[in-house]
Amino acid sequence: MGFSFLTEKTRKEITAKGSSGMEVILASLESTRDLQTILNILCILNELVSVGGGRRVGVLVSKGGTAILLQLLITTSKEWPPSEELMLQLHTILAKVGPKDRKFGIKARINGALNITVSLLKQNLQNHKLLLPCLQVLRVYSANSVNAVSLGKNGVVELLFKIIGPYSKKNTSILKVTLDTLAALLKSKANARRAVDRTYVPTLLAVYQDWHRNDTRHRHVHIRKAILGCIRNITNIKLGRKAFLEADGMRILYSTSTECLSVRTLDPLINTSSLIMRKCFPKNRLPVPTIRSVFHYQLPHIPAEGPVAQLYRQPPDVDDVVDESDDNDDTEADTENDTENEEDEKNHKTQNDDIETDISKLRPKENLTRPLEDLKMYECFFPELSENFQGYSFDSSKSCQTPAVLPKSLAPIVVPTAHAPSPLSLAQGELTDLPLDLDSICISKDGPGGAGGAGEGLAQELERVALEEDTLNGQSQSPVVGSLQGELEHDDDCSSHSSGELGVLEVPDTAALLPLHDPELYIDMVKGTKSVPQYTEVAYPDYFGHVAPTFREHILERVYGVQRAKIFQDIERMIHPNDILDKVVYDLDLKRSPVIDDGESLKFNSQFESGNLRKAVQVRKFEYDLILNSDINSNHYHQWFYFEVSGMRVGSSYRFNIINCEKVNSQFNYGMQVLMYSVQEAISGHPRWVRTGTEICYYKNHFSRSSIAAGGQKGKSYYTMTFTVTFQYRDDVCYFAYHYPYTYSTLKMHLQKLEALRTPQIYLRQDVLCETLGGNSCPLLTITAMPQSSSNDQICQFKNRPYVFLTARVHPGETNASWVMKGTLEFLMSPSPMAQSLRESYVFKIVPMLNPDGVINGNHRCSLSGEDLNRQWQRPSPDLHPTIFHTKGLLQYLSSIQRVPLVYCDYHGHSRKKNVFMYGCSIKETLWQTNVNAAACDLQEDLSYRTLPKILSQLAPAFSMASCSFVVEKSKESTARVVVWREIGVQKSYTMESTLCGCDQGKYKGLQIGTRELEEMGAQFCIALLRLKRLSSPLEFRNSSHFLDVENDLIESRCKVTSSTTYVLDEDEPSFMEEVDYSAESNDEPEPDPDPQETPADEDGLSDSELALRRS
Ligand SMILES: [Zn+2]
């Protein structure tokens, strides 16, 4: 083409909008039969599209150019031998048109163009001039999955391997296109199988090594990456992974990657290599005998349907840890399309099918499910509605006088239930048949005398203190605080933390620091707490208490390459198996935990209230794999952890890996740290949990997850949460937790201490709502202001205060909810005028812990029934879900006497989002999301459900209005929020979610959340209620209308949709810094059938229906 037919001006005219130039050229191309004319026109076209980028090609495509060019290819190739110049011109232009035409692949196949290009290739393997455009066109053909299968059948894979050669500086563009085409073809499982059969896997690995060795100046990273692309696609099939392992692929990719680590521009190679290695890493079995909880609790009866029934239906000898089906090549081949992380969430976002579209399910449900006479039993929880306060002295100068109506705190008022047998008789074992017997729970472990030297070491001191207290209290025995025995190596000079006086422990003065904490009282409370494992130990942090640190704890910045480094360390386990210790140091599945006392290993313990750690395996000298225990009567749900570590060496970095995490993503990838409590710190005056850990990340690992626990999905893996800690003190006892622990015994202690805050102005009642399955009491609080006198007016005002109903901690792992609740309770009991004004405005009914059993036993989500209690509100069972049944009963009772609460709020914690926010319920906002019920938008709805969150967003620094959602999801129809809204008729019915991580807006932006902020949130919630009250009072309304620009708000929200599961996730979570290596696989979309049928779904790579398939 040495000579140009067109000036640039002409080119522009031809392709300009509205110009018919292109049509004219195409028309002449179609009509002419003269070879020279055709060549001339093709030259013009090639020139036209070679400048100006994609737009001109777009014009060519839009004018039907593809079909005309492909037709030309067919007709001219029938003349034998085809003109080389013509074929060159045609393929050059098709190579440009192809990528711009979505239907190119299918058009070419229908026209029969595939074979023409292939045979042209076969005859011109040495003709590089023609080879290149032909390969480029072939690459476009191969992008279509049906074409790929058909090209493979015609020997194209083998053909391409003839072109791939050793390192050479020549013809690199040809090699690159060849590799890209090959990679596209290898996405087909049939082609991948073919490649394995022809032993191409070792070939590719050898080629990769060759390029790695010779491309020392990294000029051809794209070629090296393309080779890896081929390997990656072959290893999507099981045979491919096998061939890869047999060809020593792990070691090859591991060593080449290690050599690339220092050069940042080689990251794509390392990332792809790591992806392949992780995929090929043989799936390991989780080292536990069963994935069911270690602890067993016999339920009074098992509901016919649901997860527990499923669990119990399994034959006892079934191995639920691994799937047998995993070994089945055929089924496996089609199920291996993991979607994860962003992808999962993105799919969710587009699919959006969780939104309730059935308007009848959004409308109030009027009929009470329980008869009125049945609800009468709740009357006793509302004495404030009938009390007349006659004979009560209202002289506030008298010291705190408890009104006669108030029962003794925590007196066990057990609500009789219809069919429930006495909870005590339900418990298994002999000990629990009796009322808790102190002697029986106070079995200490080996006892101080049983080990080591006398009286040395922190643990010894602590134990002695426990005993001392016993003497003081005149008790024979008491639960053992901590568990360390005297086996720690000890150096007398190191006891600086005990002021040199051996045996005298400086217990932190938590009473001064923490008015609501009392270690002795805590021990007393523990004695009344019934756990399934019958714990006899108390964790130091719960005993000493936690004083929030004054320093700021920033959200951890993720260091580049951390995840990759961790994954490489994991891969080394396979490459250097001899370096792996594999030493079990803690195991609840064994009757007796292994005694490790060689000074080489850490010691673990989790056998205390809220503790969760099932097993610890020392992998390397300073690295441990940890396994969490499933919720009781369940085979999954674990995320919460709380355990003790001792026997550490100072200054060494320990890596901990929790290897059976379930969620696809975690805030641990976005700056959240674990919490650590050091007993040495505590006794030196800083009893506190601090955020700790470096090199934290969360990623998919090589432990396979049984489909039994993965909702039937096969081929799933667990995730690893890894963190690294360097211990500061020798002879320390440290605790790690997912979030600030808050045990049931802590709650009981706080509730007792609240009594002390009572003033004559405060009406405080503590009742026991019911007993839990595990035989623990579920406290119910009533807080309001005492009437100022027994005058009719005052009593009338007292009795007519609207109710505010609050609940928390239905999910045991969400300890932050308890800290928020603590803030609320303390505010409500405070002497401040604002608190008094609030008490005068409302009656607060509070169930601060809806799931005591789950909390006590270290569950993450469920109660002893193995079910998520926040999915039982529609039909709670009095036997299996007593706390929900009776809390709902209280609300139903209020509804039956026309005293529906003004506000209901259930406190939760959120593991994947930042800030504090609310979910509410709105028919309109729900229907707006769906477009199905456009007509329903005419319905009238009171917009005041937005007021409280709006006020909170102005008051509370951690609160974010942008994260709130008022959409009702189908999956949430049996949650407290939705049921209280629909069935009880509370318009302002909310879930308040507090982050486990931190804030990305407001005053606390960039900081991790602590107990101080959580408690503040609880107090701000109260202040918001006061403001809500003032807004609804007409006198003040005029001045404060700025609070309530509700309509404007609503209009904004129509544009910016926010919903719990569907929309906000990606806003909240920034994309990964190391995007590539996070996803184990991104290219394994389903293949068409081996014998592909021509269906529209198969067109052009990934169709919508295929995407839908991947989603499902
Ligand atoms: Zn929750």
Automatic annotation (TrEMBL):
Peptidase M14 domain boundaries: 740-1029
Region described as Disordered: spans on this chain: 318-365, 1067-1112
Entry EC number(s): 3.4.17.24
Biased composition (Basic and acidic residues): 345-365
UniProtKB keywords: Carboxypeptidase, Cytoplasm, Hydrolase, Metal-binding, Metalloprotease, Mitochondrion, Nucleus, Protease, Zinc
Reaction catalysis annotation: C-terminal L-alpha-aminoacyl-L-glutamyl-L-glutamyl-[tubulin] + H2O = C-terminal L-alpha-aminoacyl-L-glutamyl-[tubulin] + L-glutamate; (L-glutamyl)(n+1)-gamma-L-glutamyl-L-glutamyl-[protein] + H2O = (L-glutamyl)(n)-gamma-L-glutamyl-L-glutamyl-[protein] + L-glutamate
Active site: E993
Chief location: cytoplasm
Domain of life: Eukaryota
Compositionally skewed regions (Acidic residues) per UniProt: 318-344, 1067-1103
Cofactor(s) the protein requires to work: Zn(2+)
The UniProt record lists the keyword Glycosyltransferase: no
GO biological process per UniProt: proteolysis
A cellular-component GO term for this protein: mitochondrion
One MF term in the entry's GO annotations: metallocarboxypeptidase activity
The protein, known as: Cytosolic carboxypeptidase 1
Natural source organism: Scleropages formosus (Asian bonytongue)
